[in-house]
Amino acid sequence: MHNLHNIVSKLSKSSAEAVHTFNKENSSIFDYLHTLTPVEEKYIEILSQQKGKKSLIFLSGSSGDGKSAIIAKNRDAFASDYDFHVDATHSFKSNQTATQALDDSFRRYLENEKSLVVGINIGILMNYVEEGDVDLASIKEHIKAFLESNENTNNTFFINFDDYSKFEFDDSIVSSPFIQSIFKKITLHSNNNPFYQAFLKDVEENSISVLHQNFKLLSVESIQNSIIELLVTINLKYDQFLTTRSLLDLVYVLLTAKDSLIHQLFEDTSTSMMKNLSKEDPLQNRSYQLDKFILDRASGKEDEKLIEFIRGFNSLCKKEILNEKDAFLLIRTFYLFRNSSISNDYHKEFAINFDDSKVYSFIHLVASHHEYKDENKKAIKYFYKQLKEAVLFYVNKNAPTLSKHNLVSISTTNGITMAVPVEIEANMSKIKNVTSKSGTSFPLFLKINSEEIPTIDITLSIQNMIDQILNGYRPNKHDRNTIVIFDELVQNILAKAVHSKEIVLLSDKKKIHFKNNEDEIEVVEDEA
User: Fold this and answer.
1) Rounded distance, CA 402 to CA 121, Å?
2) Which of 111, 161, 165, 116 is nearest to 142 (CA)?
3) Which pLDDT tens digit goes with each residue over 367-420?
4) What is the rounded distance in angstroms from the CA atom of residue 355 to the CA atom of residue 351?
5) Nearest Cα residue to 141 out of 86, 111, 151, 105
6) Fewer CB atoms < 10 Å away: N or C end of the chain?
7) What percent of the chain is helix, strand and coil (3-state, nearest 5)?
């Protein structure tokens, strides 16, 4: 077996090394890959500040996000002041449940002088509130307070992975120093990189395979950047969960493919992440230009610029990766390099087919809500204008003329429509003063007839639904998850609108406007 395969196989989520424990054997690879992240910086900061104080510190998150690795990495530095409990490694006794293991750790914490660090999945934390020993009610109350308000209480501290996005947003630019660091460390040409050293050893032994070709492809910065952009997209579109373990497993799946990494990225469906990546396959983009390109490749039509591109690309990769006949591989390559210059730049002629402007417009909106700036006001106002138009279009689908008068239909009986006026506007004071941490959504702040309504989070799915409604699309059962949230928003708007002091009755020919003016009702009759 290849030296490179031996080391890459450790990245698989099914490998024995997938869960980082306090056992230091086989840890050198993960020590090398370790990157100091904002969540670890916060962890070190709190443990340093609380040294010498009796404290209970929770590092919470989801399976595979790196809790165990952070605790193991810093354990020796804090072992004199802290005990440690990690639910992934301390709850496997055959006669003990995860809840019982936590009970034991909490009792020792209350009886001893040392502080306690608990690395725990958020689901187990929620279960503990219900299932933990009644004698530990005070600790359960601290946990409950955190789950309800995301706040620390007394000497109990919670560091939650969900509060630290894997992505950084700046205007419409998105980056991920964390993911970029993983890719860079794995592919770096360095004597300190065990992956690269294994690669070189295989080359020296003339033990080369598709694995080594894929390793070289993953070393290309343009491919790394495109994969990160794809991860952003599936995170926004499909709420794809990203953890350290799932990212390392992604690298394993891509490198150990039987075919090119470029095909594997869009064809493998072995995990939820790979299934969602396959939904973004550029081959699903249909256009005259792409269809013609596929037909031309199938018919063997000559294209000198394409031949030059392939020659230049293969020369840079020092491997014959592309050929004239594999149209699918070529289109996927065009997509991955769409924002980069390579060979004779023939691929840029196809860039228009890979328009992801909607995703980046949404990223701009998310970034605008991270910290309000006056230069973002126009984009925010435009979104709220679109939202208003979509709501009116959706509510007034059976009486579309109402929308231009800022009226919403309440009911229609015997050809007569009852409507009420509605003013839908952005609550700019709230928008300016709220800082959002989310990388996948932003809070919606609306005022209806000058009154606030409950806040909901706007995701890319809801943004797409708004665009589709404005283009005449009527949501159906396949949009169930998104339309439930949109319907909730509409109902909140109508709940405020119906308390209006004005009512309008409309028929084909007449419009009667009733307005409650304190002690009298003003009636205005007009043609519809």
Assistant:
1) 51
2) 116
3) 888 778 888 888 899 999 999 999 999 989 888 888 888 898 888 888 888 889
4) 7
5) 151
6) N
7) 55, 15, 30
What pLDDT score does 176 carry?
86
Which helix (H) or strand (E) segment holds residue 160: the answer is strand 156-160
Residue 17 is given by DSSP the state: T
pLDDT recorded at residue 398? 81
pLDDT in tens, 225-243: 999 999 989 988 888 888 8
Strands lying side by side in the sheet with 520-527: 407-413, 416-421, 502-506, 510-517, 520-527
Residue 201, amino acid = K
* Two structure tokens written together for 436: 């959002």
Q: Select from 339, 375, 130 the least CA-distant residue to 221.
A: 339
What is the torsional sign of CA 261, 439, 156, 43? positive
- Domains plus CATH for the chain? 38-163 (3.40.50), 170-177+206-354 (no CATH), 360-521 (no CATH)
Residue pointed to by tokens 């997509």: 335
172, amino acid identity: S
Taking each helix axis as running N to C, give the angle between helix 460-470 and helix 377-395, from 0 to 180 degrees, rounded to the nearest 10: 60
Q: Which long-range contacts (CB under 8 A, 24 or more apart) does 451-454 make?
A: 451/496, 452/427, 453/492, 453/493, 453/495, 453/496, 454/492
Helix and strand totals (H; E) in the chain:
23, 16
Reported residue count of the chain is 528
What is the residue-wise DSSP string for 448-505?
A: ETTEE---EEEEHHHHHHHHHHHTT----GGGHHHHHHHHHHHHHHHHHHTT-SEEEE
Burial label for 1, CB within 10 Å (0-12, 13-18, 19+), is exposed
Residue 297, SS3 per DSSP: helix
Distance CA 296, CA 331 (A): 13
Distance set, CA 236 to CA 231, 249, 330, 390 (Å): 9, 20, 27, 21
Is residue 264 within 8 A of residue 252, CB to CB? The reply is no
Q: Which of 126, 115, 37, 121 is nearest to 73 (CA)?
A: 37
The label of the residue with tokens 């998150």 reads: 61
CA angle, residues 146, 149, 155, in degrees to nearest 5: 40
Indicate the SS3 state at residue 110.
helix
Q: Tell me the H-state helices in 27-93.
A: 28-33, 38-49, 67-78, 87-90
Contact 216, 319 (CB under 8 A): yes
Contact 332, 321 (CB under 8 A): no
- Residue whose entry in the numeric block shows the structure tokens 């040392």: 114
